[in-house]
Amino acid sequence: MVNFEGDIQNAYDDVRNDKSQTNWLLLTYPTDKDTLALSGTGTGGLAEFTDKLKDDQAAFGYLRIVVGNDELSQRAKFVLVSWCGKEVKVMRKAKLSVHISDVKNIVKAFAVEIAASAKEDLREAEVKKLLQKAMGANYDRQTSQY
Q: Residue limits of the ADF-H domain (predicted)?
């Protein structure tokens, strides 16, 4: 079981609040112990969030991203990210799959879950495609005529 430090619940609520500019949070392990701490929040979206990730770090992130099939169907959708950089120690890697269930006890609402080990796994266009698929009907697609 993972322990939590910091004001994670308030940060989560802030990301979920459409009236707030905050659109991401990052949880990291500040020590080798099984404790996750709020290490940052921000307003710069996926690009800013991705810049905070390190190759020797295991972390969890939560993001609010506005997507839609057209300008009239723009909605906020949420993404849960499990980050395991390429240089993370073996024992920490092994515990991530167990700790994700504890994280989901706090981070309950999300449309897409992404396991990433390289920043390329979090390209904005690809993440938005995943979110659009999760939204259901896509009226932007071209249909074939009979």
A: 1-132
Pairing mode, if any, of strands 35-42 and 3-5? parallel
Cβ proximity of 127 and 112 under 8 Å: yes
pTM above 0.90, yes or no: no
Phi, psi of 86 (to 5 degrees): -65, -15
Under DSSP, is residue 117 helix (H, G, I), strand (E, B) or coil?
A: coil
Q: How far is CA 54 from CA 51, 59, 100, 108, in A?
A: 8, 9, 19, 25
Q: How far apart are the first and last CA of the chain?
A: 57
Instruction: Identify the CATH number of the domain defined by range 3-133.
Output: 3.40.20.10
C-alpha to C-alpha distance for 128 and 67, rounded to whole angstroms:
7
Question: What is the per-residue pLDDT across 32-70, written as a single tens digit (0 to 9) for each?
Answer: 889 999 999 999 999 999 999 999 999 999 999 999 767
Give domain limits for the chain: 3-133
Cβ-based burial of 113 (10 A; exposed 0-12, middle 13-18, buried ≥19) = middle
